[in-house]
Amino acid sequence: ASLNLVNTTMVMDGTNTASGTHAIYFTGNNKLELTNSKLTIKNYKQDALEWDGGTSGYNVLLNNSTFESINNRSGITGTFNFKAIDSNVFVNDSIGNGSNGTNFEFYNSKVKFNNNRSHGLSTSNLIVDNSTIEANKNGGNGIHVNGLLNVTNNSTITILNNECAISSKWSKPGSLLLTSNNEHNIDSTTTLTIKNNYGSGINLVKGSLYIEDEANVTITDNTAYKLELGGGIYVASNTSAYLGNKVSIYNN
Fold first, then answer.
1. Would you list the DSSP string of 76-95?
2. Average pLDDT in the 111-139 region?
3. For residue 168, pLDDT beyond 90
4. Which residues in 105-115 are b (16+ Cβ under 10 Å) and which e?
5. Rounded to an integer, what distance in angstroms lies between the CA atom of residue 1 and that of residue 84?
6. What is the pTM of this model?
7. Helices and strands (H and E) in the chain: how many
8. N or C: which end of the chain has fewer CB within 10 A?
């Protein structure tokens, strides 16, 4: 099945729905596509976008559009392939995670995962191209990448005031947490600010991280409260991090 919104404004309000109701539930190789449209999903006791746990493709495409999830259990739960082009993606005030396990690609887009009670932007792959991301004031980590992180082309990422309160076999406290055996890259045109979080500024559990020279990276005033591992950057054994010449790490 495919749900296509073209030149459409659509609001789904789950205020009076039963406790087990999701807003949009994907049951296989389904597609949600927005073109010049806005979809707002709010007040569902379950998730805004939810997969059925299978292995088929679950696809979301935004083109010059806005997707907004407000005060749902979670915004996007499952392994979706989510691509936003010239669009806005706002997932705020979730009862649980803002997202959990999706492959995200953001091109020329504005993204906010703020004030979610658990993790903010929790992903498999995260591709950021000429986009702005906020991951602020979440109860868990700001951004958790369990696939590949690649940030390019004048992108700006801010990760502020996250509690980083979750420590389990699936997750460790980290404002920016990297947990896969990949070569993560932040290019020279990126601006990355990680500040005032209660977890490692960057927690590199697996793989490698390359921050290119001239990337404007500031990591400050973070406290590794739960595990006391690297208030600024924690680089685990068998991993490696290259820090470019404009990386500032202080007061952690």
1. EESS-EEEEES-EEEEES-S
2. 98
3. no
4. bbbebbbbbbb
5. 20
6. 0.97
7. 0, 28
8. N
Structural contact between residues 112 and 93, judged by C-beta atoms closer than 8 angstroms = no
**C-alpha separations of 38 from 25, 66, 105, 223, 239 in Å:** 18, 5, 18, 38, 42
* CA atoms of 116 and 114, how far apart (whole Å): 6
* Angstrom distance (rounded) from CA 174 to CA 18: 35
**Rounded alpha-carbon distances, angstroms, from residue 230 to 77, 109, 201, 217, 220:** 30, 31, 7, 16, 12
Helix/strand/coil for 30: coil
Gyration radius of the chain's alpha carbons:
17
- Give the count of beta carbons closer than 10 Å to the beta carbon of residue 55: 8
pLDDT > 90: what percent of the chain? 93
Q: Can you give the length of the chain in residues?
A: 252
The greatest distance separating any two alpha carbons of the chain, rounded to the nearest whole angstrom, comes to 54
Q: Is pLDDT above 90 for 132? A: yes
* Residue 117, CA atoms < 13 Å, CB-side half-sphere: 8
At 126 the three-state DSSP class reads strand
One-letter amino acid of 46: Q
Strand-pairing partners, residue 32, are 3, 60
- Structure tokens belonging to residue 28: 């296989």
Residue 14 reports pLDDT greater than 90: yes
Distance of alpha carbon 181 from the chain centroid: 18
Q: Which residues contact 215 (CB under 8 A, 6 or more apart)?
A: 186, 187, 188, 189, 190, 191, 192, 244, 246, 247
